[in-house]
Amino acid sequence: MIIKCPHCGPREASEYTYVGDAKVIRPDHEDNDKDKWNDYVFMRCNPRGKHSEYWQHTSGCRAFLNVIRDTVSHKISNVILAGPWKIEAKK
Amino acid sequence: MNRYSVFSLIKNALSGHKNWKRAWRAPEPKSHYDVIIIGGGGHGLATAYYLAKEHGIRRVAVLEKGGLGSGNIGRNTTIVRSNYMLPANTKFYEHSMKLWEGLSKDLNYNMMFSQRGIINLAHTPSQMDAFSRRGNAMLIEGVDAELLTTKEISRRVPGLYTGKNTRFPIVGGLCQPRAGTARHDAVAWGYARGADNYGVDIIENCEVIGFIKDGDRVTGVKTTRGEISAPKVGISVAGNTSPVMKLAGVNKMPIEAHVLQAFVTEPLKPLINTVVTWGAGHLYISQSDKGGLVFGGDLDGYNSYAQRGNLPIFEHVAAAAVTMFPNLSRLKLLRNWGGIMDMSMDGSPIICKGPLPGLYLNAGWCYGGFKATPAAGWCFAYTIAKDEPHNLNAAFTLDRFYNGRELDEGGAGPYPAHQ
Description:
The complex is a heterodimer.
Chain A: E1 2-5, E2 9-12, E3 17-21, H1 34-41, E4 50-56, E5 64-70, E6 76-81
Antiparallel strand pairs in A: 1-2, 3-4, 4-5, 5-6
Chain B: H1 6-14, E1 35-38, H2 42-55, E2 60-63, E3 79-80, H3 87-107, E4 118-122, H4 125-140, E5 146-148, H5 150-156, E6 172-176, E7 180-181, H6 184-197, E8 201-203, E9 208-214, E10 217-223, E11 226-229, E12 232-235, H7 241-247, E13 255-265, E14 275-278, E15 283-287, E16 293-303, H8 311-324, E17 333-344, E18 350-353, E19 359-363, H9 369-386
Helix pairs in contact in B: 2-6, 2-9, 3-9
């Protein structure tokens, strides 16, 4: 697998560390709702098909990326910088 | 059922092996059963077998999307062991081990179950301490375990490098002598033949495409071969648990699907007569009866439903194998495959009623599904027949995550990629 980092360009997957499902939402620190925390810590949609996930470019720029990858074909359709920047990888 | 014996072998040899009967029927699906099992792999077939044998429930259908045993029962490294530490796991896997020990005779089918032992290598004194703790936990539960010195390991596994001139020298190990390997395909075939003999319908090429529900209650399934109703539907689909649960309207599970690769080398003369696991990384290796070295290691580490992996793990696992056995460095790999693991959030399985009425779930086997096949089938059959879990699977609930009763054998936390 090759992931196109918005900063560094196309790099081999072994340069990156998989972080996990990007759709889970961490509840507020003050939030006591057990269901929300259970959803965040344990429950996953685990789709067969397109999956929005975080990878960190640990052996490169160390940025966190939001990658859209198909879990059946391993094809990556989009990579953006995670966070408020929304910088896309050059197609 | 035609019993297999030396006499049937001689009789069929005399007629040129042309008159063997097929081992199980290929029935058309009926419109109603007492129990439907989704998934015709090792676990599903074992469940059907024990439902019929132990509980007298014979109007059972096993629905398989593809061919019988075409999933993870044929995509593993065939290792059977019960060297766990948490009591719930130890008791369960030891029950499985005892079933393995009588399985060939019970099913009248040769599982080629070979109790050649497993040796877990330790590379630091603290790892040896952890192993002696685990070994003692096993002994307390009545499982066999012995601590080995490096000298003893070197005697038992001659090809293994036990010298000091390496990054992770071996300082000892933990052995379970009753562990071993079994012929994986024979497990599926043996259970299929046994279940079919009790009247269970094994229906291949029959994919479940939806569930029939009455309110929340599951009352049957829609398949590519028509609708089938049953008051009890069991799901035993390994890596496809999440997609199948979605069909039933359950959108989130404490499970992620990950790919695990395994490898076979070209055949060699006898080299390794036990199973060896590396403790400084993750590698398990054994030699098949055909002579090929069968080995595997870590997950690829990202969600995947592809039954193939990527090259970095290939290199990583091969490097670990050559570190252990330097004489393998020029061997060629013959085959490599990937299986989809239903990684639960604590590394332990789920065998329970629910989460919907009429539905029963056997999932979350991570990479331990093969050795669990007999006990998983046995406990899942009990749970379906009695509508309550057996003591052996009482801890394997789906709501244990919510209730803070995880069984985290590895102490890795809720990170499937690190289990």
